C-alpha cells in the first residue's frame, strides 16, 4: 500500500516532464532573462521576401523569396546562401558574384526586405497557427491576435523559441509586455495540468 502512494507522485512528475518536453520540442528550457540582447540588425531567413534592384539591369530587378533552405535563387548567380545575413551583406555578395563572374560590369545592387517571415503561435490559444509579422508586437499582443487563451491554458507562462536559437525560453506573465516578437519566432502556450 505504501509503494502505491509513492508511485502517484512519481507518475505525476513523469507526466509533467513528458509534457514539458513535448511543448518545447525537446529543446532545453531556460529563463527569459537569459535572452541575448539584440544587436538591432535584421538578419534574413527563410520566408522573407526581398526586393532586389540591379542598376541598369531590369531583368535582374524583382522580388525574391528566401527558400526554406536559406538560399536565394537569383538569376545568373544560381542559389546564394543568405540565411543569417543582413541586407547590406547580401548586397555586397550579389555585387561580387555578378561582377566577379564577368556577368555584369560595374554591378550595383540594392536589397530591401519587403515582407518579413511570419511568426507562429501554438498550443492553448483559440486560433493557433501562422501569423504575419508586425513591427513592435509584444508577446501579449500575439496571444490576443491568436484569439486569446483556451480554458486549458497555463496562462502564467509562455514558451518562446527564437529563430536560430538552440534553446527555448520560459517567459513569465509579468514579462510578456517587455518582449517584442521577431520574424520566425515560435510562441507556445502550454497546457495547464493541475
From TrEMBL:
Q: Which UniProt keywords apply?
A: Signal
Q: Which PANTHER family match?
A: POLYSACCHARIDE EXPORT PROTEIN GFCE-RELATED
**Residues in domain Soluble ligand binding?**
119-165
Query: Out of the domains of life, which is the source?
Result: Bacteria
Query: What's the name of the protein?
Result: Polysaccharide biosynthesis protein
Signal peptide (from-to)? 1-19
Q: Which residues form the Polysaccharide export protein N-terminal domain?
A: 38-113
Looking up InterPro entries in the UniProt record yields: Poly_export, Poly_export_N, Soluble_ligand-bd
Record-linked Pfam families: Poly_export (PF02563), SLBB (PF10531)
Write one Gene Ontology MF term: polysaccharide transmembrane transporter activity
Amino acid at each position: 500500500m505504501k509503494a502505491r502512494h509513492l508511485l502517484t507522485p512519481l507518475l505525476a512528475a513523469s507526466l509533467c516532464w513528458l509534457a514539458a518536453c513535448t511543448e518545447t520540442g525537446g529543446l532545453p528550457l531556460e529563463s527569459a532573462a537569459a535572452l541575448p540582447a539584440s544587436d538591432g540588425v535584421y538578419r534574413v531567413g527563410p520566408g522573407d521576401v526581398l526586393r532586389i534592384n540591379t542598376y541598369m539591369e531590369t531583368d535582374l530587378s524583382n522580388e525574391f523569396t528566401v527558400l526554406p533552405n536559406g538560399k536565394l535563387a537569383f538569376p545568373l548567380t544560381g542559389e546564394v546562401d543568405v540565411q543569417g545575413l543582413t541586407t547590406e551583406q547580401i548586397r555586397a555578395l550579389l555585387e561580387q558574384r555578378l561582377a566577379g563572374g564577368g556577368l555584369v560590369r560595374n554591378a550595383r545592387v540594392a536589397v530591401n526586405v519587403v515582407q518579413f517571415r511570419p511568426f507562429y503561435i501554438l498550443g492553448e490559444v483559440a486560433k493557433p497557427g501562422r501569423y504575419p509579422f508586425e513591427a513592435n508586437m509584444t508577446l501579449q499582443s500575439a496571444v490576443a491576435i491568436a484569439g486569446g487563451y483556451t480554458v486549458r491554458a497555463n496562462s502564467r507562462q509562455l514558451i518562446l523559441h527564437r529563430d536560430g536559437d538552440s534553446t527555448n525560453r520560459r517567459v513569465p506573465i509579468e514579462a510578456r509586455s517587455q518582449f517584442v516578437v521577431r520574424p520566425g519566432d515560435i510562441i507556445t502556450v502550454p497546457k495547464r495540468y493541475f
